Amino acid sequence: MHRLLVLLAFIAASMVAGGALAQAADPPPRGLFLMTDYPSQTVRAGETATIRLKLNNSGLPPEPVALALSGVPQGWKVDLLGGGLPVASAMPGVNESVSLQLRVEVPKDAPAGSQKITLSAKGPIAQAPDLVMTLTVGSEAPAKLSLKSRLPSLRGTPRSSFEYTVTVGNDSGKDLTVALSAQGPANFQTTFSEGYGSNEISSIPIEAGQTKDIKVKVTPPRDVKAGDYPVLIRVASEGATAELRVTLQISGQGRLALGTKDGRLSGEAEVGKSSTYTLVVSNDGTAAIDEVEMSGTVPANWKVEFNPKTLASIAPNEKKDVQVVVTPGDKAIAGDYVASFRANGRGESASADFRITVTTSTLWGIAGIGIIAVALLVLLGAVARFGRR
Amino acid sequence: MPPSTTARRVAARREGSPFTGLGPVFMKEFSDHLSSARMMVLMLFVIAFGALPVGLSLQELRNVTESDPFLFLRIFTSAPQRVPFSFTASLTLVIPLLAIGLGFDSVNSEFNRRTLSRVLSQPIYRDALLLGKFLGGLATLTVALVALWLIVLGAGLLLLGIPPRGVEVARGLGFLVVAIAFGGVWLAIAMLFSVVFRSTATSALCALGVWLFFAILWPLVVPVLVLAVTPTNVAMGMGRLDETLAMIQMQSTLERFSPNTLFGEAVIGLLNPETRTLGPIIPSQMRGAIMGAPLPLDQSLLLIWPQVTGLIAAMIVVFAIAYVVFQREEVRA
């Protein structure tokens, strides 16, 4: 009766859809069917593979269907699971299907070659055609990595940091943890971080077939000379490696330093008299600095002069002497003062604070002794004038 | 007769050195002072006045934790909280009293006891007598001050537990010299009055009067005098910088007529090494200066040199006046 109803409904639907369509549509096959997407699969020795199955009931009344496996090779463990649990039978509704999984544990010592496993489903009335699955024990697919960079060459000064964004791809069939390393010239520091993250990383997990962006930051030493420096970035995982060569183009930069020959940054000066100190202007950088101008800040009413006032050029690692003449003001008070001297080149500057001890003239000290002498002379005069017998 | 001829005649009339007999007079005066009951009283007075601020400031200095390169000098200069009086401030009061106590009756007591003519009948010149008395008093003063200085230094060593540095000892010695010169000035003043007045009470009163004048009245009189001669707008602080500076300069010049001011300034320059100047400072002079940096010892000495010179010269000049007065006096009673 039920079947008749379905049939009637089907015919009605066909009539509504139109005569041409009704003639093209064959009646669907009736019966039980065991199905899988890939009847031939590759499994690896020592690993567990899960194969998805479906038991389909097409147009039959529901009934319990017993499931059975045959042809399981020696040492293999094959389980039939339904909803995560081992099952022995299934019961699909009319025109419905039940999902099943076949868990295949392949022993480690399984020989290479194909194995056939037959799955049968048999109900009290209907029987599904046997599903023969061919499982091939294959050798392991090798891991494969790729490494790419969009901007493999960057330019900067010794003080800038060079950031390369590289894309690491996992081209193999399984997830890998990739170790990161870099090889550069001596004293070049390299750090890795993930995408926009700030944490330093040394390895990163990448899923099969995926890629990840990694930032590589290279910090050259401050005193590096101008030139091109290659850095070899290497990623490695389970025997697979990939390498990428990036280049740092470092242009030179001058760096001024101001000091004295013996490192002493203090001196003495007498009030109103000029004192000369020798400053040393040096270039610790990697490029020459042109037109270095000297200037100084001294207390009010003091005078400061430089000889020479301007240095034409200072080559890298060159030192040049500059005489600075400081004259404390006439009204300066004895004690310690700060004078700061500066050297300014193109965009580069250096300064040094100088502690100047101001001393006063000893002239007044001598005058004081003169006053005492005059007082004594007065006394002697009194003795001479008024001395009595 | 022209004075030059007179001088030659007087000088020619003199036989032998004017210092004949100086030694015996000095020794006698020195021993008399050291053994006198008056000296004991004065010494007790000085030690009591000195010990109180030193003891209290030492108690406070022991609790000082910050490092101070001139900790030892702070014993002299720091004013304890309980007694607002530093050691040097109390010495400013006590040294004149000590000197006046030693000198106010040095000549007129001899006269009143009628021993002066007896002494002068010996082969001793008046020059030697006066100078010997003065030097005897100065030596006594020196003994008292050195003893006090050593007591302070020893107490500092005991209670602070650290030895003073060489610079601190040098500054302390300079302070001692300045204190002796200051005492010498007052000794000379006291002796001048003892020469001028026959009555010991009058001379003591006059010496103390001068001391009170300089200690109390002069610091009050000077600002009034200065205000009286400066224009109103300058006195109100509205004048130009150089006018205001001139006013301050005049005030400090007048104050420096007082030996107490000279002594105080010299002590500040010596015992506070951070002192850069004793006069007014305009802000532009302090630009770029490193505050709190101590001056080297020679610079501090140069700074206070006028004050020290002034004290020593004043001592000599006052003594010279006393000498002239004494020479012209009738000593026979």
Compact description:
Chain A is mainly beta. Chain A has helices at residues 2-17, 19-24, 363-386; strands at 31-36, 40-44, 48-58, 65-70, 77-82, 85-86, 89-90, 96-105, 113-122, 131-138, 145-149, 153-156, 162-170, 176-183, 189-194, 203-206, 211-219, 227-237, 240-250, 256-259, 266-270, 275-283, 289-297, 303-307, 310-314, 319-327, 335-344, 349-359. Chain B is built from 15 helices and no strands.
Topology:
The complex is a heterodimer of chains A (389) and B (333).
Chain A: H1 2-17, H2 19-24, E1 31-36, E2 40-44, E3 48-58, E4 65-70, E5 77-82, E6 85-86, E7 89-90, E8 96-105, E9 113-122, E10 131-138, E11 145-149, E12 153-156, E13 162-170, E14 176-183, E15 189-194, E16 203-206, E17 211-219, E18 227-237, E19 240-250, E20 256-259, E21 266-270, E22 275-283, E23 289-297, E24 303-307, E25 310-314, E26 319-327, E27 335-344, E28 349-359, H3 363-386
Parallel strand pairs in A: 2-10, 12-19, 21-28
Antiparallel strand pairs in A: 1-3, 3-8, 4-7, 4-9, 5-6, 5-8, 9-10, 11-13, 13-17, 14-16, 14-18, 15-17, 18-19, 20-22, 22-26, 23-25, 23-27, 24-26, 27-28
Chain B: H1 3-13, H2 22-35, H3 37-61, H4 71-77, H5 87-103, H6 108-112, H7 116-120, H8 126-160, H9 166-196, H10 200-229, H11 232-235, H12 241-255, H13 259-271, H14 283-286, H15 297-327
Helix pairs in contact in B: 2-8, 3-4, 3-5, 3-8, 5-8, 5-9, 5-10, 8-9, 8-15, 9-10, 9-13, 9-15, 10-12, 13-15
Question: Can you give a write-up of this model?
Answer:
- The complex is a heterodimer of chains A (389) and B (333).
- Chain A has three helices and 28 strands.
- Chain A is mostly beta strands.
- Chain A has three domains: 104 residues, Sandwich (Immunoglobulin-like), CATH 2.60.40.2310; 106 residues, Sandwich (Immunoglobulin-like), CATH 2.60.40; 104 residues, Immunoglobulin-like, CATH 2.60.40.10.
- About 2% of the residues of chain A have low confidence.
- Chain B is built from 15 helices and no strands.
- In chain B, 37% of the residues are buried.
- With 333 residues, chain B is mainly alpha-helical.
- Helix content of chain B is 74%, strand content 0%.
- The N terminus of chain B is likely disordered.
- Chain B has one domain.
- The longest helix of chain B has 35 residues.
